[in-house]
Amino acid sequence: MAELFQWSDAYGVGIQEIDEQHKVLVDLLNRLHDAIHAHQGSETSRKILGDLADYTRTHFAVEESLMRVSNYPDFEAHKQNHEDLIGQVNALQAKLETGEAKITFELLHFLKVWLTHHIKEADKRFADYFISVGGAPAWAPHVEQSMSEKKWWWKFW
């Protein structure tokens, strides 16, 4: 079965940590797609959606931290964009718990379009700014070594 969202370098923003986290988000979105396609049940889909929501919150916290330390001028608008998505996901999760909503392919399409647009537009603008003010686009060699040995660590903190 084809993936819902196939990662390519075109989605890279140029900050290694952010790009690696975006790949995890894409993987979780594809796992949710696979679960729906395979009719694995609403409990499995809700679990994966919960993992996606939790990881998204962590990812947004990392991005916003980098924005604050680099004095990103569009921080408030970008943060509001994050909060709007989290609010929508929280409302959806509440409806899923009460049976008022189901996880559908339309939801997956919405999440894919939102993520694609957000990465290519808002995150790319931030990354360009971050690098222009001296932010490090890549991990130091010792960090790269550690991350490659314990790749699971940064996925779940």
UniProtKB/TrEMBL annotation:
SUPFAM superfamilies in alphabetical order: Hemerythrin-like
Pfam family, one: Hemerythrin
KW Coiled coil (keyword) present: yes
InterPro entries: Haemerythrin_Fe_BS, Hemerythrin, Hemerythrin-like, Hemerythrin-like_sf, Hemerythrin_metal-bd
GO terms of molecular function: metal ion binding; oxygen carrier activity
Family: Belongs to the hemerythrin family.
Protein name, UniProt field: Bacteriohemerythrin
Organism name: Denitromonas halophila
